[in-house]
Structure formats: structure tokens, C-alpha cells
Amino acid sequence: MKNKSFFTVFGAAFLMGIFFVAGSMYYKNQESQRVESIVKDNFKTLVPGHAMRKGSPGAKVFVVEFFDPECESCREFNPYMHSIMADYEGKIQLVMRYAPFHGNSIFAIKILEAARKQDKYWEALEILYQHQPEWGNHHNPRPELVWNYLPRLNIDVEKLKSQMEDPGIQKIIEQDQIDGKTLDVRMTPTFFVNGKLVEPFGPDELRAAIDQALKEL
Amino acid sequence: MINKAWGTLFGAWLVASFATLGSLFFSEVMKFPPCVLCWYQRIGMYPLVFILLAGLFPISKSVIKFSLPLATTGWLISVYHNLLYYKILPESAAPCVQGVSCTTVFIKWFGFVTIPFLSFVAFTLILILLFFTYRNLAHEK
User: Fold this and answer.
1) Chain A touched by B1 (CB under 8 Å)
2) How close is the nearest chain B Cα to the Cα of A6, in Å?
3) Do the beta carbons of residue A123 and residue A153 sit within 8 Å?
4) Residue from B8, B26, B29, B107 whose CB has the most chain A CBs within 10 Å, to mutate
5) What is the pLDDT of residue B140?
6) How far is C-alpha A87 from the geometric centre of its chain's CA atoms?
7) DSSP string, B23-40
8) How far apart are CA A208 and CA A198, in angstroms?
9) A48 phi, psi to nearest 5 deg
10) Given CB atoms, is B93 within the 8 Å cutoff of chain A?
């Protein structure tokens, strides 16, 4: 009796485990197929004209990063991104998409996009990341601190403040949010390499995905 | 009656395990962020997997005593959550301030099966099965 009951429980647990793992694999597979077909039909969902890009314009491998300037992981990942961009120079294009998940994300994105109008996009991103622990502290966010850092970049801050209110910027953010939802982006940073979600998240995984995409060209 | 009691307790364990794995599937595989009320219900559900399992070998009446507080608390929270979810109570009464709203609808199968509904069904089934386990064990005496 005791053996029998033990095997019943063990068997049920085993079956449920198998069921769970198989279900996860099935779901992930379905999800990546769904994303691939969306991107195939409409590449703009992933790489729209409005998105900021970096790298050689002729490169055929698109690395799309959904990010949030207030996200700590995006900040942590930034140095890896630099070395990847250097190692794959001429071979990839980085496409920046927004996924505002925090309280002051939209404020920070507006600063980035306004800085872009003054040709200081990447500099502004660096300085926002650098000082993120101060202005983007989750317990005591102080977005107003941003005004102390920006003058260092030779940015016309007064002009930037009015440029931030450009309704075009609002539209970019809204479009990125819509596309993020379509592509099921729930975390930042989320990377897509030529339409394929990079999972699990990590610098080595991202490099592997880029290598794979370069091979497939 | 021992066999019967073992069966119903095993059933309760199956429900708890299924609910645990299901909720992990929603959060870890489908990446739905769990809301505050969901976490409270998880606190009630997850330990049941281990408590009920321990109670099966060998079956003992004390398992009822240890699992009932968790199952009842979880059940009460799930009732409250469903009342909010189906808009019988206004959301302003909800404790969700930051993060995910407790009334965000992530899934809706057949038009009415939602995640809080599944939780309510699971807790209810566990309570019913625990009741029968108790009765079957009482008959044994």
C-alpha cells in the first residue's frame, strides 16, 4: 500500500513536471513563430523609420533594443553594448526602441529625443545612465537633477526644454509602446536580432544571436 | 476509509500542485507580472504542495490542521480578488498602489475563465477535498 501510494504521487509529480516543461517549450515556440511572422509581414513593427540607429547604415543585421533609460539592467548592459558595437563594426545596426516601464521613463525619453534634435542623443544617453542611481532612484526619484548634468554636454538646455514638448516625440513613444505590446516586450532590455527574440537575456546570448544572423545572410 | 481519505487528500495535493505550476507558468513562461493579491494567494497555495505531500506519508489527521489556515486565507483573498475583478467591488478599495493593477485582465478563456477565477476554483476544490478527507478519517475512528 505504501509503495503504491508513493508511486502514485511520484508518478503524478513526474507527469506534471513533464507537462509543465513541454507546455513552456510549446508556448515559447508559438510565441517566437508569432513574432517572426509579424516581423516578416511588417518589418516596421521592429525597425520603424523614426527609431534612432547606430552602426553602419548598410549593415544587414539589425539588433533591436527595447530599453528604458530608467531601467537598471539597461544601464548595466550598456558597457556590453559598447563592446559588441565595437566588435561587430560594419556588420550590425543598433536600433533603439523605447519601453517606458518606470515613473520617469517618459520624461527621460523626451530628453533623449530632444537631445537628438541637437545631435547629442548618445551623449545624453550616456549621461542619463551614468547618473541614473541619483535621478532614477526608485525610492526617491529626483528627475530634476537631470538639468544639472545636461549643460556639460554643450546642450542648449532652454531650447531642449521646448523641444521636449514636440508632439512628434510623444508619437514616437506611443508607437514604440504599441509595437512593444505587439511583440510582447515585458522586460527591458529586450533584444531582437533580425526579428528573433534573444532569449535568455545576456551578452553572450546576444553575441551568439548576432553570429547566427551573420551566418544566415 | 483510509483509502478514501488518502484519495481525497491526494486530490487536494494534485489541485495545489497544478495551481502552483499553473501560476508559475503564467508568471515565468508567459511573463505576466503577478499583482499584489496574486502574491497573497500564492503564499496560501505554494506551501500546500509540501504540507499536503507530507500529510500523505503516512496519512494523518494533523495535515488538516496545518493546511486549513493556508487554504482558508487563500480562499478568502481569492473571493475578494474576484469581487474586484468582476467589478462587484470598486477597485478604489484595492490595495494595489504601485506596479500591476489587480484588475488587469490577462486571460479570458470561454469569456469568463480568468486567472483569479482559476485561483478561486483551486482553493474551493482544496477546501472541499480537505473536508472530505476529514470526514473519511473521522469515520475511520
Assistant:
1) no
2) 8
3) yes
4) B29
5) 66
6) 20
7) HHIIIIIS-PPP-HHHHH
8) 9
9) -80, 160
10) no
Asked if the ipTM is above 0.90, the reply is no
Among the partner-chain residues A6, A24, A184, the one whose CB lies closest to the CB of B25 is: A24
**What are residue A24's phi and psi, to 5 degrees?**
-60, -45
Name which of B4, B123, B131 is nearest B59 in CA terms.
Answer: B4
pTM of the model: 0.75
Instruction: For residue A38, give the 3-state DSSP assignment.
Output: helix
C-beta atoms of B25 and A12 within 8 A: no
Task: State the Cα–Cα distance between residues A52 and B92, nearest whole angstrom.
Answer: 40
CA distance B78 to B41: 7
- Helix, strand, or coil here: A203? helix
Is the CB of B56 less than 8 angstroms away from the CB of A9? yes
| Sheet architecture: strand order including A52-55 | A52-55, A92-98, A61-67, A190-193, A196-197
Instruction: Kindly state whether B17 is in contact with chain A, defined as any CB-CB distance less than 8 angstroms.
Output: yes
Residue B56 pairs with which residues in a beta bridge? B59
Residue B139 has pLDDT above 80, yes or no: no
- Residue A110: partners with Cβ closer than 8 Å, 6 or more residues away: A164, A169, A173
- Measuring CA to CA, how many Å separate A82 from each of A122, A141, A161, A189, B63? 11, 27, 28, 14, 57
Residue B113 β-bridge partners: B109
CA distance B42 to B46: 6
Query: Which one-letter amino acid corresponds to residue A148?
Result: N
Bond from prior residue into A203 cis (ω within 30 degrees of 0): no
- Averages of pLDDT over runs of 10 residues in chain A (217 residues) are 81 93 92 86 88 91 94 91 93 94 90 94 94 86 89 90 92 94 88 90 93 91
- CB-nearest to A5 from B29, B33, B56 is B56
